[in-house]
Amino acid sequence: MATHQSCPYIGKNSWPELLGTNGDYASSVIKGENSSLQVTVILVGSPVTGDLRCDRVRVWVDESRIVVKNPTAG
Question: What is the pTM of this model?
Answer without folding.
Answer: 0.86
